[in-house]
Design a protein that fits this description.
about 650 residues, alpha+beta, eight-stranded mixed sheet, five-stranded antiparallel sheet, 11 helices, 38 strands, about 20% helix, hydrolase, serine-type endopeptidase activity
Length: about 650
C-alpha cells in the first residue's frame, strides 16, 4: 500500500489518468450496477485498526486491518444488507444490517425493515453475538441507536428495544414503543434505563457522556403537543406542532445544553434552539440563516462539534476547522465526505468522488500530514471514463432560481446530445456534483444526464424546501421540464431525444412526465414509483396507526386530499404519450409494490405500451447486487430501444 503526502493526495486521480491506456469501449454495464467493491470503513478510537466492508475475489467480506494495513481478521457477510460499521474500542466491531420481515395478522402493514446489530470480535476465537441476543424478553431488532460511551473503562451501547411479555410460544409484544437499554459491549448484557413512551407518544432520548439520560422528548401522536424533560423528569421546554415537525438534535458544544428543532408560534419554518439541560433559562435560537445539511457529533459524548452548510464544513474550535481546511485543500474540486475519525481527529477516514473519481477511500494521518489510499469503489471504471460532472444553474418559469447536476458522456462533444432527465427521490433530498452510478452508466453509453434540484429539494434554504409543498405534479414537475428547456437553449441537448427516469419520487416524476405532461419525452423509466398519490396517503396514514400527526404532515406536504387524484399518473394512464418501463422490488417497505401493479393495470386497460420488471427479494434501496444489475440492464435496454444515443 502506497503512502502519500496529504498535500499531493488529490493528484492521485490525475496520475491514474496518465497511467491508463486508451480504451476502445466503455466499461461493462455491471461495473456501474454492481455494489461498490469498497462499501464502508471505520477506524478504532486509538487509530490502530481499520474495518472495511468490501468485495474480495467476488465475495463480500468484513475485513479487519491493523495500523499498517495488514489483514488481521475477516468474515464473510454474504448478501447481508450492511447499513453501517463502527468500532467498540480496539477489539470489537458493531455491524448493523437490515432485512425485510413479514408481519402477521393485526399489524398495520405486511412488511417492515428490521435492523439488527452484530458484535464481531477481532479475535476469531471468540463468538459473534447479536445485540439483545442474550435476553429472550427483548426482540433482537434495534429501534434506534443512541451512541457508544466509555464508562469506567468499559464500553456501553445505547439502543431502543421492544420488550416481550410471557414465555416460550406465549410471548407477545408488551408495546410497540421502544424501551431504552444500555448494552454491555462486548458481553451483551442488558440494563433497562428508560421506559417506553406508550402507544400514544413518540419518545426520543439524549445520552450524556456518563451514560445517563440527559433529556427525554415526547410528542403526542394525535395533537403534536411535545415536551422535553430533563434528567429528573422536569419539563424544560414544550410546544405544539400538529405536523409533527419537532425533534431533538444533539447535546450542545460543551455538553451542558441540548439542541432541538421546532416551529415558532405563527412561523412556517423550523428553527433550531439551544437550551440548558437544567432549564434555568429560556431557549435561544441558534444556526439562524444557516442551511444545515447535516451535523457532526462527537461519538463518545454526543456533543455537537460541527455542521455542513452547502459545500462548507464548519467545526467549532480552531483545531477541528484547521483539520477540515487541510483536507479540503488536498482534495480540491472533489466531493469529500468524512466517514469516521478518532476522538482526537488525528486519524480520519474519508471518501472522495467527482470528476475523474468513481469513489475512493483514504486513511488520513493529520499529525503526519499523510493520506493512505485504502481502496476504490469501482476499480473497473478508469478516471478518464468518468463522465464530466458539473452544476447547471437555471430559472423556473416563475423566476425561482434553482440548479441541477449535469453529467456528460466522456469523449463526446457537449452539443445536441440525447438526454436522460433523472429527478431524485424523496422528494426531500438533493443531487450533488459527485459520481452517481446510475447517471454515469447512461453517460457511458452516450447520454447527457440531468438531475434537477426542483423546489422541495434540500440544497437551498427552508423556504425553497417548503416551496414544494402542495406541488407534486405541478410546479415541482415543471421545474424539471424547465431544466430540460434551459439545457436545450444552451445547445447542450436535443429536445427530440429526451427520456425521463427516476426512482421513488423520481419514479413518480418519470410517470408524471408522460401522463400529466405531454410532448416532452420519448420514454419513461419508473423504479419503485408512486403512481397514485391518494393511495400513498391512505397507505402511509393507515400504516402509522391512523395517527393524526402523520395525517397533518402528509396533507401539509401533498395538499388537500380532494386534489390528489389530479396529480396521480395512474388516473391519467390514457394520456400517456410515450412507452413506460415499470420496475419494482417485491420487498419494498417504502413504496408498496401495488403502486406499480396498479399503474400497469391502468396502462393495460388504456392500451398503452409498457413493460414491467418485478424484482424478487429486492427492497426500496436496491440493496442487492444482482437485482441492481437487473434493474440497470432493463432500464438501459428500454432507453436504447426508444431513444438510441447514436
Amino acid at each position: 500500500m502506497r503512502i502519500v503526502s496529504i498535500a499531493s493526495a488529490a493528484l492521485l486521480t490525475c496520475a491514474s489518468v496518465l497511467a491508463q491506456p486508451a480504451v476502445a469501449a466503455p466499461p461493462p454495464l455491471d461495473a456501474y450496477g454492481d455494489l461498490p467493491g469498497f462499501e464502508d470503513a471505520a477506524i478504532s478510537p486509538s487509530g490502530k485498526h481499520v474495518a472495511v466492508i468490501g468485495t474480495v475475489e467476488g465475495e463480500r467480506k468484513l475485513l479487519l486491518f491493523d495500523g499498517g494495513m495488514t489483514l488481521v481478521g475477516h468474515a464473510s457477510v454474504g448478501d447481508l444488507k450492511v447499513r453501517g460499521i463502527q468500532w467498540i474500542g480496539d477489539d470489537n466491531v458493531l455491524l448493523t444490517y437490515s432485512k425485510t420481515e413479514a408481519l402477521g395478522f393485526g399489524f398495520t402493514s405486511n412488511q417492515y425493515e428490521a435492523f439488527q446489530t452484530l458484535i464481531v470480535p477481532l479475535d476469531a476465537a471468540q463468538k459473534v453475538s447479536i445485540v439483545f441476543g442474550h435476553n429472550s424478553s427483548i426482540v433482537t431488532s434495534i429501534f434506534g441507536s443512541y451512541g457508544l460511551r466509555l464508562i469506567g473503562g468499559k464500553w456501553k451501547g445505547y439502543f431502543g428495544g421492544v420488550q416481550l411479555m410471557g414465555t416460550g410460544m406465549q410471548q407477545r409484544l408488551e408495546t410497540t414503543s421502544p424501551t431504552l437499554f444500555e448494552v454491555g459491549l462486548p458481553d451483551n448484557s442488558t440494563r433497562k434505563i428508560a421506559a417506553p413512551g406508550g402507544d400514544y407518544l413518540w419518545r426520543d432520548w439524549l445520552i450524556d457522556e456518563h451514560g445517563e439520560v440527559a433529556a427525554t422528548f415526547d410528542m403526542e401522536r394525535e395533537t403534536g403537543n411535545w415536551r422535553i424533560k430533563d434528567a429528573k423528569g422536569k419539563v424544560i421546554a414544550k410546544g405544539a406542532n400538529p405536523g409533527g415537525d419537532a425533534s431533538l438534535i444533539s447535546l450542545g458544544k460543551d455538553g451542558t445544553t441540548l439542541i432541538y428543532s421546532a416551529k415558532a408560534k405563527g412561523e412556517e419554518d423550523n428553527h433550531w434552539y439551544e437550551l440548558p439541560l437544567t432549564g434555568v433559562t429560556d431557549p435561544v435560537e441558534v444556526m439562524q440563516g444557516i442551511n444545515v445539511d447535516s451535523i457532526y457529533v462527537e461519538r463518545t459524548t454526543g456533543r455537537l462539534i460541527g455542521y455542513i452548510d452547502g459545500d462548507q464544513r464548519v467545526f467549532f474550535g480552531p483545531k477541528l476547522q484547521s483539520m477540515s481546511d487541510k483536507i479540503s485543500r488536498a482534495f480540491k474540486n472533489l466531493k469529500v465526505t468524512l466517514e469516521d475519525w478518532t476522538p482526537d481527529f488525528g486519524h480520519v477516514l474519508l471518501r472522495t468522488s467527482g470528476n475523474g473519481d468513481s469513489g475512493t477511500w483514504y486513511a488520513v494521518d493529520l499529525n503526519a500530514l499523510k493520506a493512505d489510499p485504502l481502496g476504490s469503489e469501482r476499480p473497473v471504471i478508469p478516471a478518464d471514463e468518468v463522465g464530466p460532472i458539473s452544476k447547471f444553474e437555471y430559472k423556473a418559469a416563475d423566476g425561482l432560481e434553482m440548479d441541477g447536476v449535469l453529467t456528460l458522456p466522456p469523449h463526446r462533444e457537449a452539443k445536441n446530445l440525447p438526454v436522460i432527465v433523472f429527478p431524485h427521490g424523496g422528494p426531500t433530498g438533493q443531487d450533488d456534483v459527485e459520481f452517481d452510478w446510475w447517471a454515469q452508466a447512461f453517460a457511458s453509453r452516450g447520454y447527457a444526464v440531468f438531475q434537477p434540484n426542483f423546489r422541495g429539494s434540500t440544497n437551498r434554504d427552508e423556504a425553497f424546501h417548503r416551496a414544494g409543498y402542495g406541488q407534486w405534479g405541478r410546479k415541482m414537475q415543471t421545474d424539471i421540464s424547465d431544466g430540460l428547456a434551459a439545457l436545450v437553449a444552451k445547445g447542450l441537448v436535443d429536445p427530440k431525444r429526451a427520456c425521463i427516469m427516476g426512482g421513488s419520487y423520481g419514479g413518480y416524476a418519470a410517470l408524471a412526465g408522460v401522463t400529466l405532461q405531454q410532448g416532452l419525452y420519448r420514454c419513461s423509466v419508473a423504479v419503485a414509483p408512486v403512481s397514485d398519490v391518494e393511495l400513498m396517503y391512505d397507505t402511509d396514514y393507515a400504516e402509522s396507526g391512523s395517527v393524526k400527526v402523520v395525517k397533518m404532515s402528509l396533507l401539509e406536504e401533498l395538499g388537500p386530499r380532494s386534489t390528489l387524484d389530479e396529480v396521480s399518473p395512474r388516473r391519467f394512464a390514457a394520456k400517456a404519450d410515450a412507452p413506460i418501463l415499470l420496475i419494482h422490488g417485491k420487498d419494498d417497505t417504502v413504496v408498496p409494490y401495488e403502486q406499480s401493479t396498479k399503474m400497469a393495470d391502468a396502462l393495460k386497460d388504456a392500451h398503452k405500451p409498457y413493460e414491467f420488471v418485478d424484482m424478487k427479494s429486492e427492497d426500496h434501496w436496491l440493496s442487492h447486487a444482482e437485482t441492481r444489475k437487473q434493474m440497470l440492464a432493463a432500464a438501459m435496454a428500454f432507453v436504447q430501444k426508444y431513444n438510441p444515443a447514436d
